[in-house]
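Researcher: Structure prediction, please.
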Amino acid sequence: MTPSPAEANRKVTERAARIAGLRSFETPTLEAVEQRRLQLWVITLALLVTAVVALLIVTFWHGLQPPDWISPIVLQSALLGTVVLFCAYAVEKELQLRRLTKLLVDERVLTAALTNRLREVTTLLEAAKAMNFVLDLERVLATILECANELLDTRDCSIMLVHGNGELRTVCTSGTSAAHGARLKFGEGVAGRVAETREPVLVTGVLEPERWTATENTGRPPTSSMSVPLVHRNTLLGVLNVNAAPGHAYTRHQLRALSLFGEQAAAAVANARMYEEQRLLASQNVYQALHDLLTNLPNRALFLDRVNHALARRRQAGQSVALLFLDLDDFKLINDSLGYAAGDEVLITFADRLRTYVRSGDALARFGGDEFAVLLEDVTSNADAVAAGERILSLFAEPFVVGERRVWLRASVGIAVEGLGASSAEALLRNADIAKNVAKGEGKGRIVTFEDAMRADAVERLELETEIQQALEGAQLTVHYQPIYRLPGGDPVGVEALVRWNHPTRGVLAAAAFLPLAERAGLMARIDGWVLRRACEAFPAIRDGAHVGTPFMLSVNISPTHLQEPGFVDEVAAVLAATGTAPADLVLEITEAAILLDSETTSVHLNRLKALGVRLALDDFGTGYSSLSHLRRFPVDIVKIDRVFVDGITTDRGASALVQAIVRMGRGLNIEVVAEGIETQAQAEELAALHCPYGQGKHLCGDLPAEGLAEALSRSS
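Model: Predicted structure follows.
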């Protein structure tokens, strides 16, 4: 019958222990030895009394007749010899029991010494945990080996811990141990057998002497060694191995002491591991609480703490602290069109670029979304902070690569310098945020330094943002229309719908005064939809009342965020159907930012609009990142030259050449060209000379409400 694995392991353990002459690992206690001594002397005394009595009887009882074949002298001698031999046996057993008692006492002393030393380590470990000190696993392992070295007369020792499934790896050594870097499978070598059976082993003599013949720099092989398992709560943690110094041989009592020590050592190792894991988890939690996990930059809390420290630190005269606050312009388009994963990729790339463009002592942070902050210490003037802002803006000279797409972005930067009532981190950040919002309101992609007057403007903008919400609900918005004329000749060919706000106290506000705030408040889709419906409802009456010919177009501006709405095209189709407006009469004006990303959503929506019959115009052409590839890729029917170039057309040869190039490009691509912002007769004549077909502006006609528009169009036609 094949023996079971447990029986086989037991036999392996017995065979290994037999090397030391052990029959069993069971050893009597001191109490058991004392009981045996008492039993020995009771039996000895009883037998001795019996033998003496028998001897006296034989000697002095004359009536006693022994058998004929035994003489009285022989019987007396036999009894006397029995008494002597038994006394000698009793004395020998007493000496053996005394030696055993001494060994057991030594074992207890050794065990107590080992465990007491380890208990000191455990107490230190507990104290370290309570006081948040560092006492790592390596220190505990080294202390365990120090205890073994000091109290067991070792030459060297090592600790092997369980790694993975069924493997031991040496993690700590002491002395001249040859176990550095050793790895053993369970069952291999003495340590592997101990790990497999979880039984201690005492080795006397040299195991596998052939293994030592070719080993260099390890000295003579140990002639006595012990290996004990490190088990905590029925879980094997590893094996403790000790090799005796030359001339010293370990005993089974020392093996027992080391085994008990191993139990304490296993508990210390388990606790050290637990504390180490807790420290690691705590440090991870602290890191996560103070850092942005996407970019690994500090977050708002850590950054503001750094700013407060910088403000509190003494500096030389003339030095101050500056804070730069920025966000990426139109970043929402990336998330809406390419997805949040693409947006995260852009943020990570920008954070990496930002790290390389600031000084080593400056602090960086991501506040969430697309907002970042930079702390500059020891700046000597506002110019230093502005120069840092310019370095940041230069990061956007190269596009961001997202998959196979190249995405261009800009950023608005607000700067606040210590002073102007900013004596805390929160105040400095608030000022920088105000300056950043001013930068965005002035056209984005620029740097603005905070001035005290901006604080009142910020409060006013906040109030205005709240009032916009009320304006939508209170019918305070209205639509004005600016005619578009043929050049030269002055015949009207269409109108552009422009939203206006009839503010209760400020009068009529142009779109530029409140649409950026509406964009930030997430109201643009509602405003766009309202303007589109009102303009389409009014368009038939405008066209019929003006007695203009056909074709006659109605242009309506659409914000980039509204264009990305999933139901945008369906909304346009529903408005056309409800108002009876012909799709060919409607022109939707989109900015370059809306198509800059070359997004899937933009492309799908624009092509669906073309399928409806709606025409598309690219507004503010020339101020962004337009390219011929955009005009060829998207179904654009009209480009509108930005007023910046029209303003300089009579004084700047470059502006005139650019307008001429756009006109020629439009003619070559079969795209109509409209010049915006015509303010003077000279501009109108120059545009006509450059063969620009259409134009609009205050010189030709300002924006008017629908009631007065028909008369103005009739006069011009």
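Model: The longest strand covers residues 492-503.
Researcher: Thanks, that helps.
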